[in-house]
Design goal:
By secondary structure, the chain is an alpha/beta fold. 33% of the residues lie in helices and 21% in strands. The chain has 29 helices and 41 strands. Strands 1-2-3-4-5-6-8-7 form an 8-stranded mixed β-sheet, sandwiched between helices. Strands 11-12-10-9-13-14-15 form a 7-stranded mixed β-sheet, sandwiched between helices. Strands 17-16-19-18-20-21-22 form a 7-stranded mixed β-sheet, with helices on both faces. A hairpin with a 5-residue loop joins strand 27 and strand 28. It is flat and about 100 Å long. The two termini are 34 Å apart.
Length: 1008
């Protein structure tokens, strides 16, 4: 695809003097990036420099004649010296070239040349450029050109180029598709036997959606390659039993891995046998290096000392290994030297196109029947199931594996990523989002490397399956050793609120993580907060009732079956509760019952478990979750766990299986869609994707099962009934399911960002540019004065009540005369501002006499006027004092916050938060989520305030911050909300040059 500028240079103007060349700019190292390609491998994108001449020639020699013809519109077997010079010498402004590299060698190039309206080479202010690509044939179809287009477009925008032009031969359909699928606004024409394309480089909703969809597919595929290898090599397996490498080798074999397994030990060099293997470890052929194996190795488990890891990585990369699990320690967790060692490890692995789990990792597990991979230090392979588990701690991973196994829960996959220098929880969210074998995602996180991206991915995943997170290192103020994360200024409570806004189920402990995961993986989502309680203990029923009220649920009167109740009584009561339309969930309480001779009987747990399963199986469609609270019931929890294992009965290729949780069956595969005429018909469960969008669903009937479509009958399936040793734990897990179900129903119909006709976006932008562009502007930012803040907010329809300074009593009287009585006299000194409890405010001053008296009292008690900085304002209707704020956090982005004004709210931390841009639904929840929200809605007979007016102010502040990233902080305090209308009495606005939005740029991996 030859560019017009190249054609003109080569043919039309052979003798034309060269155009003036702008001075070369410094090498733009911020254009370098690592990207994940469509097949899950990685490549490095970087600018092409004069040092790349040999690489360019070698690259071009490996391109087919057909691809060369498509690039230059004519046979072009080799590059001339002039070509090589032109393609490697750039000014990084008007002429830019980028290369995608693997192993340091070029696999693709892209180039733009700025042109004028006649298509000739030009400089700024020309804002159009010709663009041309060339991809090595062996790497076509990997999405390399699409990734290069994203990055060259970002470079062009940075250099004030707004449009690309490209000329492509009609037969070059692959390249035409790269342009047309990118999502940019474009024009297309056919001229002189070629297709002429013009792309507007301004990002659009569609281009961003395309970019994120490609990101999801590529990152999910990169994880899938790690989880489904056909061959595994354990690098560092020792000769003697024991040691990390030999332990992993034994675990691989013990799990029954379906692929080939090799051991690698460098000490075996020079002792190869007849078949090339130097020895056998546990019946596995052992070699001195990966290269000596002579077969393709998909995954390498690296368990050698840190100083020997670079040699092992090079051996793997040079012989086509796709991914690494680095168990070795001695990296960023060990200090500055370790951090540098970790950076070098990531750079080295990515240079070969490999992704890394670790270093300092515990390992990975995939329980799919056609894989059975246990490449970890866990001695026992978990049962197969529907839970995906990610941890950043090996010790926590061990505890979670044990806890889930003990309670009968199975896993689809498990990852303990250690320092997560490369592959992170975000990558696994991309994988689990559309993994048919996973219904519930459990995450133990000690840090969040990219909070913006995590929130976006978690929201999308939570829309189809639950995401449960427990966050460690909440109060330390720093990231755990080994974790490289951006600094965030917002408190933990704010992060928690933002995660809940994204649909994440946020729990505080590892125990709660297991409790919630067990319920969500086993039971349908509740349709509402009404809870039926039944059991053979009145006291336990009352404890459950109280726990429900504490968690915001609506419990019904407990049904006491008495201590004489037998398993058949439980069965009948549970069946009745499941059929009762006045409840949305059922809690069954059970204590040991008393026999005829008065002796306590402990051995009937198995019988009770069978009765409870029978009641659930008899329900026409299990649309309500059932949980059991047991106290000293021998064998009950074990019987429920054994009888209702979450291992799928049938699995399709790639690990797809069956499940019963709220995310089960969302994407059935061919084997999963099998049906059995003996099963009950599937019906939508309230709060699930099936109920909202007609996706496939799973029904529990007490046997084995498979996922099905809405119209096909299901085969019998196992329905786990989770058991808890305390009412509070069961109810807390149930409450999380209720809140998640409500969020998911609301997420099916998201809110909107209203348009306001009176917003003057252009006027606000001009004011901001005037302030930040001034000669005396501080590059770190500036706080607007009162007049400027009022003007800016007025552009967005937010009126701030005028405030007049009162440095003397006479000035106060004059101000009151301008405003009209009654007035308020307030101090604005920093230590008294917004603290009416300290006595710095006098209200309802109706005359000059009252004003002078109040002025004298303030100055006598609190200090001199120059210290107090008193002001006068007109009185406004009484109401509830509130605070509206927005601030930009470098890690999370813009956050909108709301609370009531006053020291009590600040002490209690009673502030709610939402990410910007906020929708009408977001601000409605923002207002109602406060613990003190009843004060806004007529608490104890007071008049309800004008919450619609309050929500409108919140939406307008959100729009201001979203439209103008230079607005880094806004504080409206107080905002007095009256029964009719509101008044903004004070406002502070801070402007600063905006930080770059990494989430809107071209996709790339975190830099090292």
């Amino acid at each position: 695809m030859q560019s017009a500028s190249e054609q003109s240079e080569a043919a039309e103007h052979p003798a034309r003097p060269a155009r003036p060349v702008p001075p070369d700019h410094d090498y733009p190292d911020h254009w370098e990036a690592d990207v994940v390609l469509r097949d899950g491998g990685t490549a490095r994108i970087r600018p092409i420099t004069a040092d790349d001449a040999d690489r360019l020639v070698s690259f071009y020699e490996q391109v087919s004649d057909e691809s060369k013809y498509y690039r230059f519109f004519a046979p072009y077997p080799r590059l001339s010296a002039k070509d090589v010079h032109r393609f490697t010498h750039h000014d990084f402004v008007d002429r830019v070239g980028l290369a995608a590299t693997v192993g340091g060698e070029f696999i693709a190039t892209v180039r733009y040349d700025r042109i004028n309206e006649r298509g000739l080479p030009a400089s700024a202010p020309a804002d159009e450029a010709e663009v041309a690509f060339l991809v090595q044939d062996a790497h076509q179809g990997r999405g390399v050109a699409s990734a290069l287009l994203e990055h060259i477009a970002a470079v062009a925008r940075e250099r004030d180029i707004r449009r690309f032009a490209a000329e492509v031969l009609p037969a070059n359909t692959k390249m035409i598709k790269v342009f047309t699928d990118a999502g940019y606004t474009q024009k297309r024409s056919f001229e002189d036997g070629s297709v002429r394309l013009h792309l507007d480089l301004e990002p659009t909703d569609r281009s961003l959606a395309v970019q994120r969809a490609r990101e999801q597919r590529a990152e999910a595929r990169s994880v899938q390659r790690l989880l489904t290898p056909r061959s595994v090599a354990v690098v560092g397996a020792g000769r003697a039993a024991g040691g990390v490498g030999r332990t992993v080798l034994r675990n691989l074999l013990g799990a029954g891995f379906s692929g080939r397994v090799y051991a690698v030990n460098a000490a075996l060099a020079g002792s190869a046998g007849g078949d090339g293997a130097a020895a056998e470890f546990d019946g596995v052929p052992a070699y001195p290096s990966v290269g000596a194996i002579g077969q393709t190795v998909d995954l390498a488990i690296v368990a050698v000392p840190a100083e020997r890891v670079p040699e092992a990585v090079a051996d793997c990369g040079e012989h086509g290994v796709r991914g690494l699990v680095v168990l070795s320690a001695g990296y960023a967790e060990s200090g500055a030297d370790g951090r540098e060692r970790q950076r070098q490890l990531v750079r080295q692995a990515r240079s070969y196109g490999m992704r890394i789990i670790g270093p300092n990792a515990f390992g990975i597990i995939n329980t799919a029947a056609d894989v059975s991979l246990n490449a970890s230090l866990a001695p026992q392979m978990p049962a197969a199931g529907r839970i995906g588990l990610f941890t950043q701690s090996g010790a926590i991973g061990i505890a979670l594996l044990a806890g889930l196994h003990r309670r009968g829960a199975g896993l689809s996959s498990f990852i303990s990523a250690g320092n997560r220098a490369d592959v992170s929880g975000n990558d696994f969210l991309q994988h689990w989002y559309d993994d048919p074998g996973t219904d519930v995602v459990l995450l133990y996180l000690e840090s969040i490397g990219n909070p913006r991206k995590f929130t976006r991915l978690a929201r999308r995943t939570a829309a189809v399956k639950p995401v449960v997170v427990v966050k460690g290192a909440r109060h330390s103020g720093s990231a755990p050793p080994g974790h490289r994360v951006p600094v965030t200024r917002i408190p933990h409570a704010t992060v928690s609120a933002l995660l809940r806004q994204a649909g994440v189920i946020r729990v505080d402990t590892v125990t709660e993580l297991v409790d919630a995961g067990l319920l969500l993986a086993a039971q349908p989502l509740p349709a509402g907060p009404r809870v039926a309680i039944l059991g053979n203990s009145e006291s336990l029923g009352l404890l459950t009732y109280d726990a429900c009220l504490t968690e915001g649920l609506r419990p019904l009167r407990p049904l006491d079956l008495t201590t004489a109740a037998e398993p058949a009584d439980f069965r009948d009561a549970l069946a009745a509760a499941l059929a009762d339309e006045t409840s949305d969930a059922v809690v069954v309480n059970a204590i040991p019952w008393v026999g005829e001779n008065g002796a306590t009987e402990f051995g009937d747990g198995e019988v009770l478990a069978a009765s409870l399963r029978e009641a659930v199986a008899s329900a026409q469609a299990p649309t309500k979750p059932v949980v059991v609270v047991h106290v000293e019931m021998g064998g009950l929890a074990e019987a429920l766990a054994i009888a209702t294992s979450t291992r799928p009965a049938a699995q399709g290729k790639g690990g797809g299986g069956v499940g019963t949780g709220p995310g089960a069956g969302l994407r059935p595969t061919g084997t999963e869609a099998q049906s059995s005429p003996a099963a009950l018909p599937a019906e939508p469960r309230p709060g699930t994707a099936h109920g909202a969008a007609g996706a496939a669903e799973t029904v529990g009937t007490g046997g084995t099962g498979a996922t099905t479509s809405p119209t096909a009958p299901t085969s019998p399936t196992t329905l786990t009934i989770p058991a808890y040793p305390a009412a509070e734990r069961a109810v807390r897990a149930l409450a999380e399911a209720v809140r998640y179900g409500q969020w998911r129903r609301l997420a099916a119909e998201p809110g909107r960002v209203p348009e306001y006709e009176d917003i003057d976006e252009a006027g606000a932008a001009a004011l901001i540019e005037r302030v930040l562009g001034g000669e005396e502007a501080d590059p770190r930012g500036v706080t607007l004065d009162t007049a400027q803040a009022g003007e800016l907010l007025a552009r967005y329809g937010i009126a701030v009540l005028p405030t007049l300074p009162a440095p003397t009593p006479d000035a106060a009287v004059a101000a009151a005369g301008r405003l009209g009585y009654p007035v308020a006299l307030k101090t604005t000194a920093p230590h008294l501002r917004h603290r009416p409890d300290l006595g710095g405010v006098r209200l309802d001053l109706a005359s000059e006499e009252q004003l002078r008296t109040a002025y004298a009292e303030l100055t006598e008690v609190l200090g001199k006027p120059e210290e107090l900085q008193p002001v006068v304002q007109a009185m406004v209707p009484r109401g509830v004092d509130t605070v509206v704020r927005s601030a930009i956090d470098p890690a999370v982005g813009a956050v909108l916050s709301f609370g009531l004004s006053g020291a009590a709210s600040e002490l209690l931390g009673d502030t709610t938060h939402r990410l910007v841009p906020a929708t009408d639904r977001d601000v409605a929840e923002l207002v109602r989520s406060l613990r003190t929200a009843p004060l806004l809605f007529g608490w104890r007979g007071s008049a309800p305030v004008d919450t619609p007016a309050l929500e409108e102010v919140l939406l307008r502040v959100s729009r201001l911050v979203d439209d103008h990233p230079e607005v880094v902080a806004v504080s409206l305090e107080p905002v007095v909300v009256a029964p009719r209308g509101l008044s903004v009495l004070g406002a502070t606005v801070r402007l600063a040059p905006p930080a770059p939005r990494t989430d809107l740029g071209p996709r790339s991996l975190p830099s090292y």
